[in-house]
Amino acid sequence: MRIGFSLPVFGKAAATPGGVARYAREAERAGAAGLWVGDRLLSPVAPVVSYPGYDTMPEEFWTAYDPFTALAVAAAVTETAILGSSTINATQYQPANFARQLTSIDVASNGRLLPGLGIGWSPDEYDAVGIPMSERGKRLDDLLDLLDTWWSKELVTHEGVGYKIAESHVGLKPVRKPPVHLAGFGEKALRRVAERADGWLPVWTVPEQFPAEMLTTTLAKLRADAERAGRDPGALGVALRVNAAPDTKPELIAESVVKILSVLEPDHTFIDLTYLTSSVDEHLDLTGRLLELTAKG
């Protein structure tokens, strides 16, 4: 059973000087199969839309590390772990810079990047970057087009949404085309996964908030839709994030992970430790404990 973990990019642990590098290095040595980041630009005091399940924003998000920097740091101090995101709010970034950043991280990691992308839900964050939130769907489609071009052609030109790339030499290419996974449960988001993505980014919660059949049924539909779109349904990957609530016991997390993996059989799985630790030491201790417990199956 190969399990990954979130890098300490949120909360007090994220503010530890050198903490991301130390955790990445030691977690890989302990057996972590992947190292993952999330993306949070702002924690508004009075958000236009509150974080799901909260009246405002969780305190853990008051401190947030840049996801690209975290992945680059992890790439520099590890050799085998998958470096993933679940998720980066892709449409909040300038597309050409975004493509160059992903490519650079993939090259730096020798082809270990798994970019998991989403469109976010926070109007405050879209206001902060000056991008209309109403355009996020078409901007994601445009970005996927640009990434295909950026990663496959030496001469790149592109007419995008609100930007234009003149024909340019782009010699830096990824070690292998990074498998773009997309998040979402809505109808439009799932259709985009089936028709365009290399994989899906479902979420499992501990304690369990919904039956596993919600994930397995959705995945079966995604693969059927992919086949109808002329794609290989078996090639649609799954990168599962396990969200554990505050104060959840490691034994319960491990038990739930073993259960969901037995029915969903994802290609990649990582446990998000954001709500469970407040220091790099705690992050490492819990990582070791969960690796030990899940190994027992």
CA gyration radius, whole angstroms: 19 Å
Order of helices and strands: EHEHEEHEEHHEEEHEEHEHEH
Percent range for β-strand residues:
15-25%
Helix percentage? 40-55%
Task: Output the CATH topology.
Answer: TIM Barrel
CATH architecture field: Alpha-Beta Barrel
Largest sheet: 11 strands, parallel
CATH class: Alpha Beta
For the terminal residues, how far apart are their CA atoms?
Answer: 8 Å
Mean pLDDT: 96
**Can you tell me the residue ranges where pLDDT is under 50 for at least 5 consecutive residues?**
none
Number of domains as seen in the coordinates: 1
- Please state the overall shape, judged from the principal axes of the Cα atoms: globular
- Protein structure class: alpha/beta
Compute the number of helices: 9
Count of DSSP strands: 13
| Assigned CATH superfamily | Luciferase-like domain
Keywords: Flavoprotein, FMN, Monooxygenase, Oxidoreductase
GO molecular function: alkanesulfonate monooxygenase activity
GO biological process, one term: alkanesulfonate catabolic process
Pfam families: Bac_luciferase (PF00296)
Write the layout of secondary structure elements.
Blueprint: E1 4-6, H1 19-30, E2 34-37, H2 67-77, E3 82-85, E4 88-89, H3 95-108, E5 113-114, E6 116-118, H4 123-129, H5 136-152, E7 155-159, E8 164-169, E9 181-182, H6 187-196, E10 199-200, E11 203-206, H7 213-228, E12 237-244, H8 250-264, E13 268-272, H9 280-296
Parallel strand pairs: 1-2, 1-13, 2-3, 3-5, 4-6, 6-9, 9-10, 10-12, 11-12, 12-13
Antiparallel strand pairs: 7-8
Helix pairs in contact: 1-2, 1-9, 2-3, 3-5, 6-7, 8-9
